[in-house]
């Protein structure tokens, strides 16, 4: 299923329940962040090893899957509300990121783009 078909299913679900009245842009953005926080909460107090072990736990996988789905659903609603084509936006952002993070300056580095400069050169 592509994003457009998934968005249509989300909208149908919403409309069957008369929830559009609650879906102002502000409310959707707040809800997206609340769901992202619930995803983050699954990692609280866990080591990297414990996080890696989550892949073997059906219960943990279900919790991760559910929270990821909630985040995606709200993101689809935000995009639909604002007329953003998420596929186009993602492709455009990859192009921007490629310019910000050229391979020769960013390979293997977690530094922010403003800190990835060649020796002796200032980044504009």
Query: What's the SSE pattern?
Result: HHHHHH
End-to-end C-alpha gap: 41 Å
> Rg from C-alpha positions?
19 Å
**Structural class, judged by helices and strands?**
mainly alpha
Largest sheet: none
Share of helix among residues? 55-70%
Tally of strands: 0
Describe what you observe in this structure.
- The chain is an all-alpha fold and 124 residues long.
- It has six helices and no strands.
- Helix 1 packs across helix 4 and helix 2 packs antiparallel against helix 4.
- The chain is globular and about 50 Å long.
- It starts with a helix and ends in an 18-residue tail after the last helix.
- The mean pLDDT is 91.
Topology of this protein?
Elements: H1 3-16, H2 25-41, H3 48-53, H4 58-82, H5 86-100, H6 103-106
Summarize the structure in short.
The protein is mostly helical. It has helices at 3-16, 25-41, 48-53, 58-82, 86-100, 103-106.
Features:
0% strand, single chain, 6 helices, 124 residues, mainly alpha
């Amino acid at each position: 299923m592509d994003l457009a078909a998934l968005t249509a299913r989300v909208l149908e679900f919403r409309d069957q329940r008369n929830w559009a009245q609650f879906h102002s842009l502000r409310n959707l953005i707040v809800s997206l962040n609340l769901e992202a926080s619930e995803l983050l909460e699954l990692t609280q107090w866990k080591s990297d090893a414990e996080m890696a072990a989550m892949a073997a736990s059906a219960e943990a996988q279900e919790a991760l899957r559910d929270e990821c789905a909630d985040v995606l659903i709200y993101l689809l609603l935000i995009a639909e509300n604002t007329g953003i084509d998420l596929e186009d936006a993602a492709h455009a952002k990859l192009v921007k990121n490629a310019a910000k993070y050229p391979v020769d300056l960013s390979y293997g580095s977690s530094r922010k783009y403003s800190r990835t400069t060649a020796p002796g050169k200032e980044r504009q």
